[in-house]
Each structure stands twice: as C-alpha cells, then as structure tokens.
Amino acid sequence: MIQLRKRRCVLFDVDGTIAETEGNAHLPAFNLAFEETGLAWRWSRDDYHYLLKTTGGYERLLRYAEDQGHDLQAMRQQLTTVHQAKNKHYAQIMAASTVPARLGFADLVLALHAKEIRWGVVTTTMRANWHALWTHSLQPLGLPEPSVIVCGEDVAVKKPDPEAYQVALERLGLAPSECCAIEDSRNGLLAAMGAGLDVAIVHSEFFDDEHFDEAVQVVAELTELVDSV
Predict the structure, then answer these.
(1) Where would I find the beta strands (DSSP E) of 18-134?
(2) pLDDT single digits (tens) 125-145
(3) Which residue is catalytic, options 13, 161, 184, 198?
(4) Which residues have C-beta within 8 Å of that of residue 160, sequence separation ≥ 6?
C-alpha cells in the first residue's frame, strides 16, 4: 500500500485520474471540432481508446492523420485549427458542469490538506483544459489550490517521458522520495517512475486493460487511498 501520509506532496495526473474527462469531454469535443471545421472524421470510443496510447490532443490528431495516410505537413495548419476548436468545445462542455470529479478525489485532497501535505497536477493536457476542469468541477468543491501545475505547454516531451514530473519536482524543490504520483495509464506510470516516484494507479475507462505491475498500489476508486493519508 502506498503511504501518502509519509509524503510532502502528492502529484495527480488529470484526465482519467481526477475526472473521467476523456470519454465525457475530450472525445465529444474532438467530434464537435471535426464537424465545425469540415473535417470528415468521427471518432468512436474504440477509436479513441486506441488513440490514447499517444499522449497529447494535437499529437493524437497527427497520429490519426498518419494512420489514415494523409500528408502530415500539408495538414498541420488544418489540424492546429481543429485542435483550437476542440479546446473551445471542451471548455464549453466543462462549463456545463456535466463532468464531476471522480469519487473520492475531494475527500483525498482534503485529507491531504488536513495533514499539511500538498498536492499538485502533472498532466499532458493544455493549461486551458486544466483551468476549465478546475474552475467548473473542482474549485466549487472548496478544495485548496494545487501547489504545482505542470501542463503540456511546460514540457518539450510528453508522457511516458519523465520530463513533466521532473519539472514538478524542480518547481517544488522536493526530492522524488518526498513525493508520489497517482496515475491511471501506463504512459503516466512510466513517466512518474522515470522521475523516481512511487506510483499508485486508479483504474479508469480507457486504460483498464493496461498492465501496472510496477505500481505500488492499484485501486478501483480514489476512496481507497484516503486511509493512507
């Protein structure tokens, strides 16, 4: 069992870990963006499950274009426009307050706060997407603000590269042994481990079939981690 009470900061992934945003916000936002920009693509949940092996929304667009045999150089500007539209639709979906925090997340953060243990965010999503989730789903729960926020714009290489976690540790001024990570994907597990962190995995919709043998603990819901604080 991971001992959160022995850490000075707990670092959370966002999509799938803090909230089930992938299927409930990102995927519909992509499809709305395709329709808005006139791109004749539609992603099913099975398509998205496969595409999530690639971290980053824009990178997913590139991966799909390549898989479909398109000229990536010729499509880059179009895909940039699609990605911008997607982020706009994501923000609108989040503003409708239809995507709540995962069961146990608020209790876990409040338990950490009560023990003067900080929490932070390490994600490959765009900062605007994190802000939408924070503003509409998390802040209304009365949670303390995270001590560190590392988003996709802050790194040159996304997960499974450890850079995002290394940046978080540097900003916090803490050693890997003083922190741990909570993730939902194998890419996230590998990124956190690569930065020297112990990792707890919470199962999520799209990554439930992945292997997490190296994780210190694997749980179905975040509520199972509250007692470790």
Answers:
(1) 118-122
(2) 999 999 999 999 999 999 999
(3) 13
(4) 55, 186, 187, 188, 190, 191, 194
Domains parsed from the chain with CATH numbers: 4-20+99-228 (3.40.50.1000), 22-95 (1.10.150.240)
Among this protein's residues, is 13 annotated catalytic?
A: yes
198 flagged as catalytic: no
Catalytic pick from 15, 161, 184, 198? Answer: 15
CA atoms within 13 A on the CB side of 36: 17
Amino acid present at 47: D
Please give the pLDDT value at position 97: 87
The answer, as to whether pTM is greater than 0.90, is yes
The span from the CA of 169 to the CA of 165, in Å, is: 6
Tokens encoding 142:
């009365």
